[in-house]
Design goal:
Elements: E1 5-10, H1 16-31, E2 36-39, H2 46-54, E3 57-60, E4 72-74, H3 81-89, E5 94-96, H4 100-114, E6 118-122, H5 128-134, E7 141-144, H6 147-151, E8 160-164, H7 170-183, H8 197-210, E9 215-219, H9 225-236, E10 242-245, E11 258-263, H10 269-279, E12 285-289, H11 301-318, H12 326-332, H13 336-340
Parallel strand pairs: 1-11, 1-12, 2-3, 2-4, 4-5, 6-7, 6-8, 9-10, 9-11
Helix pairs in contact: 4-5, 8-9
Length: 345
């Protein structure tokens, strides 16, 4: 295959939350003997999951399946409070890799519920983020997936608030936001959209190129909500042909002309490179950057504390002080892409 040219969206691929989670789980596999346990898939990408499985990580859907005393990580999507409590009662090291922007929505839901609000939560039923968020205040929240869901609640008494799953495309739920405002004129909403800035960045970059392409390729897994949202954005932006692919092997054979390429927030850059190689553009690749906000999150605090404790023990055992650059090393000594480029440590 050889298309004319490729328009490559930037940013694409790993967001700050995914970067944080992958690096944190990699640290756990370095510090603890296998197996290390992880509640749910660390991120929604099979390539990433397979990598960690090869390092001895066991993914479970119930923390009751984690042996007592074993180290466990909670996924980036956020976990219900009862799951977090159960994991901590298990007696092992617990690292919560939840994205801080998901935590922000959890906090907003908790505050609104405490103030007597009924919260309309726009999200996908069964998605880990939605399940974890709604479990924060289950008696005060209703899942909204359609206008009919809002209509059923028209007679609500008391104040109403609106929150959303962070990974959704605004194109997916703007009509629900508008209808909720029409139905409940006094509805409370956050000052800023609950769409995370990584989602906003990736969608804005894709919008800038989608209409100029003969086809759009979105790289990422089918169970990745933000990947599916990118495909929706491409269609809404005027793209005539949109393909969600897991990798180069899924590309259609008849791609021609100009192809726009992006990747979901849990898709490794190595998959992007494979797709670019397969497209083999005669006129090369041009990168189109649209950044609404910068992206960076530090490692989980529990991981910092665990590694500081281990470093202090090494101080005693080896008689050498820990470097003053320890925190910077923990944050930036390797990238998630480098983690996935290795099969071991």
């Amino acid at each position: 295959m050889s298309v004319d040219r490729v328009l490559l969206a930037a940013p694409r691929g790993f967001c700050a939350g995914v970067e944080k989670a992958i690096k944190a789980l990699d640290w756990m596999t370095r510090v603890f003997e296998a197996p290390v346990y992880c509640y749910h898939e660390i991120v929604h990408n099979q390539f990433v999951v397979n990598h960690f499985t090869s390092l001895g990580v066991v993914f479970v859907n119930d923390v009751a399946d984690v042996p007592r005393g074993a180290p466990v990580m909670l996924s980036a999507h956020g976990s219900p409070p009862q799951v977090i409590d159960a994991a901590r009662r298990g007696g092992g090291t617990v690292i919560d890799a939840v994205c801080p922007l998901v935590t922000k929505v959890h906090h907003e839901l908790k505050v609104r519920a405490r103030k007597g609000y009924t919260v309309l939560y726009v999200g996908h039923e069964g998605h880990e983020e939605a399940v974890g968020t709604m479990a924060v205040a289950p008696d005060s929240v209703h899942l909204i997936e359609s206008i009919e869901d809002i209509e059923k609640l028209r007679g609500l008494n008391g104040p109403v608030a609106l929150l959303s799953q962070t990974t959704l495309s605004l194109d997916e739920w703007q009509h629900l936001r508008d209808y909720a405002q029409m139905t409940f004129p006094e509805i409370w909403m956050p000052n800023r959209s609950d769409l995370c800035f990584a989602t906003t960045n990736r969608q804005a970059a894709l919008r800038s190129i989608a209409a100029d392409a003969d086809a759009v390729v979105v790289i990422g897994s089918a169970n990745s909500s933000n990947t599916v949202a990118l495909a929706t954005v491409a269609s809404a932006s005027g793209a005539q042909r949109v393909f969600r692919v897991n990798g180069a092997r899924d590309l259609p054979e008849d791609l021609t002309g100009t192809v726009a390429v992006t990747a979901g927030a849990s898709a490794p850059e190595s998959l992007v490179n494979e797709v670019l190689d397969a497209l083999d553009p005669r006129e090369g690749v041009s990168v189109h950057t649209v950044t609404v906000e910068d992206e960076y999150f530090p490692p989980p605090p529990e991981l910092r504390e665990t590694l500081r404790t281990l470093a202090a023990l090494l101080d005693v055992c080896l008689g050498t002080p820990r470097p003053s650059t320890f925190d910077a090393t923990l944050d930036r000594d390797f990238t998630a892409a480098q983690v996935l480029a290795t099969s071991g440590h």
